[in-house]
Every structure is written in structure tokens, then in C-alpha cells.
């Protein structure tokens, strides 16, 4: 069975259940209970299975990346740091614009062909843009979980 050489995730409504540039307010920090909170003290959480999914993919030797078109890249990067996710992601393309630009930069930096990439996102427009350039793209309606990842890996290049 073929496996992707690069697995890329969107952030908003894919790894966490909010838009970082709209629904939470910086600065972000960890409180005394080690919970991540925003400026108002509101707890910030990712989708429940995301930490285990990222750890398993890293343990299984996958190269991981982020492609986010957020209007607030600094906030997204701070949350990645606070979630202790920096060591998971080799490629981080976090800025406004089309996802095709994000992937073009990852392709150039990695030398990995689009056909060897797997992408997860909650927005149909991004899925369609990337399918057009040859990236296997999976629509994630309610955040990443173990089942979605396992099915995507099993189906990679078999369809």
C-alpha cells in the first residue's frame, strides 16, 4: 500500500474548534492549571483526539505540515506553541491567501510531489483547489479524529 510522504492540516475547525482570528482574543497563555486561556480567561481547547493523532503520525514516521489562511498568523503560531505541537510540524505555512500558495511553498521546500501529499481541511473551496493540483484532500466536517485519519490513510492512492 502506498503512503503519503507529507500530511498537511488546516488549523481552524480542523485541529481546533474555532477561528483563531475571530473567536478567541490574545494574548494566549497557560494558567496555573496548565490550561490554555485567552485574554478573557476563556479556555482554549483543540479537538479531543488531535494530540493522539499527531503523536501517532509522528511515531509512524510521517512528515507533517500546516496550511492555514488565517488573518492572524501570530495567534495561530502562539497556540501551536502552547499546545506543544511545534515538534510535530516540519512545514508551517500560516498566512492569508489561497491554499495553493501554501502548498506550492511546501512543495518547493520539501521536493515532495503534490500526488504524494494528503490534506485535511474543513472548507470545501480549499479541498477543491488542492484536488485540482493533485493533492489528495479530505473534507473534515467536525474536526480531525482517529477514524478520519485511518480511513484517509487506508484509501490513499487506492481510489
Automatic annotation (TrEMBL):
Transmembrane segments: none annotated. This is Magnesium-dependent phosphatase 1. PANTHER family: MAGNESIUM-DEPENDENT PHOSPHATASE 1 (PTHR17901:SF14), MAGNESIUM-DEPENDENT PHOSPHATASE 1 MDP1 (PTHR17901). The lineage of its organism: Eukaryota, Metazoa, Ecdysozoa, Arthropoda, Chelicerata. SUPFAM superfamilies: HAD-like. GO terms for molecular function: acid phosphatase activity. It comes from Trichonephila clavata. Gene3D superfamilies: HAD superfamily/HAD-like. Pfam families: Acid_PPase. InterPro entries: HAD-like_sf (IPR036412), HAD_sf (IPR023214), HAD_SF_ppase_IIIC (IPR010033), MDP-1_euk (IPR035679), MDP_1_eu_arc (IPR010036).
